[in-house]
Amino acid sequence: MAHAMVVRINGGLRQVPPGVIYALGVGWAGWLFWRGLTGDLGVEPINALERAYGDIAIKLMIATLAVTPLRHWTGLNLLRFRRALGLACFGFVLAHLAVWALLDVQVVSALWDDVVKRPYVTVGMLSFLLLVPLAVTSNDLSVRRMGAASWRGLHRLTYPAAVLAALHYLWIAKGFDISAILHAVVIVALLALRLRGRTRVQMAR
Ligand code: HEM
Description:
This protein has 205 residues and is mainly alpha-helical. The chain has one domain. Helix content is 84%, strand content 0%. It is built from ten helices and no strands. It has helices spanning 3-13, 19-37, 45-74, 79-105, 108-117, 119-136, 140-146, 148-154, 158-173, 178-204. Helix 2 packs parallel to helix 4, helix 3 (45-74) runs parallel beside helix 10 (178-204) and helix 6 packs antiparallel against helix 9. The longest helix is centred in the first third of the chain and has 30 residues, at 45-74. It is globular, with a radius of gyration of 18 Å. 25% of the residues are buried. The site of protoporphyrin IX containing FE has 21 residues, from helix 3, helix 4, helix 6 and helix 9.
């Protein structure tokens, strides 16, 4: 990408407050919920809503993972949005989980059954559990308290959380589902790029 163009885009991005991502996320989640309430999500609105929230969650996860390779390979700097993208991803996973627990399964005992007996729910839950400490520590206070090195170490949990989310989607698909496969390929490619970038940095030291 032409350097001048990248500089101009980065300059423009610096004017955009990261809070825009939170506002868009809440608006989008609310709008989908409203569509479900008003019969605009088809004959199975609960399943459609569950899938819609899951779909957005995995796309936000990919966007969060893409920030570093994107800057490395194109110069486009979205670093100041990474925290908001990560927290928006977590927000949609929470909404996804809430639809599953409160509207889909509804019975507490059956929730545990689902987690234990349905492998795709088991790996979805594992992915969620790995995201919890990341969401809880996505603030300046935690970075200061933990120190940058330990904070960065903890946030490497993003990698297994992303792989489990991709596996969750592939498992739901049962068979050839181009969307689930594409999400998985992109996640693996982004992780490979990041790991390669890190190895390069280590070798350069
Ligand atoms: C917290 C634990 C989780 C549970 C209980 C859960 C449960 C579910 C369920 C029941 C479905 C629909 C399956 C169907 O229609 O047959 C689903 C779909 C999906 N979930 Fe999850 N999930 C969890 C975590 C996650 C996480 C962490 C992500 C990604 C970040 C995710 C992404 C998806 C995606 C992409 C779909 C498929 C959407 C589609 O078909 O378009 N889920 N999940």
